[in-house]
Design goal:
With 167 residues, this protein is mostly helical. The chain has helices spanning 2-25, 37-57, 60-71, 77-113, 122-135, 142-166. The protein has one domain. The protein is built from six helices and no strands. The radius of gyration is 21 Å and the shape is elongated. One of its GO terms (biological process) is microtubule-based movement.
Length: 167
């Protein structure tokens, strides 16, 4: 009877975690003119969410319940292990992406506040983007790189618009 109650609790957790994972994979809705710092903020937010979820999964209360279910040879544990792995992978991805995007952070200010003659920053910026593409185990997907280039382009356009309106 205790095992059944604990399995019910784990199934509720499983559904909640699956919901978080599904939501994290949905397409982001962003304004058309959002700059590259929004990319860093997005991944920082994901990192925070997944790290707190990992902390909860690794808590002593959860570990006790899982060990009781292991002793009872519960069938719910296989799905739990898969979810634990998925959350760990998502947390690692977010942490890694934040680390790589922070290398670009020093370019975001100059890109936003430079005159349209921002060419001096572009080669260094592109070198860092290239480094991220070549070395990041997670961020180097077509989807992520396209999103980043779109945001960098948006920032350049916004900077030019501001320059024209103030001139």
């Amino acid at each position: 009877e205790v095992t059944e109650k604990l399995e019910e609790v784990v199934m509720i957790w499983t559904k909640q975690i699956q919901q978080v994972l599904v939501e994290s994979k949905q397409i982001r809705r962003e304004a058309d003119d959002v700059g590259p710092s929004a990319e860093l903020e997005h991944w920082k937010s994901r990192m925070s969410s997944f790290n707190s979820l990992l902390d909860e999964i690794k808590s002593s209360r959860v570990k006790k319940i899982i060990s009781i279910l292991q002793a009872a040879r519960s069938k719910t544990l296989q799905q739990w292990k898969e979810l634990d792995h998925s959350i760990t992978t998502a947390a690692n991805e977010a942490k890694d992406n934040v680390r790589y995007l922070y290398t670009l952070d020093k370019f975001f200010g100059p890109l936003a506040h430079a005159s349209p003659v921002m060419m001096e920053h572009i080669p260094s910026l592109m070198n860092v983007v290239f480094m991220i593409y070549c070395t990041s185990p997670y961020y180097n997907t077509s989807e992520n790189m396209t999103s980043l280039f779109l945001k960098i382009t948006n920032q350049m356009i916004n900077t030019c618009k501001t320059y024209l309106c103030e001139g």
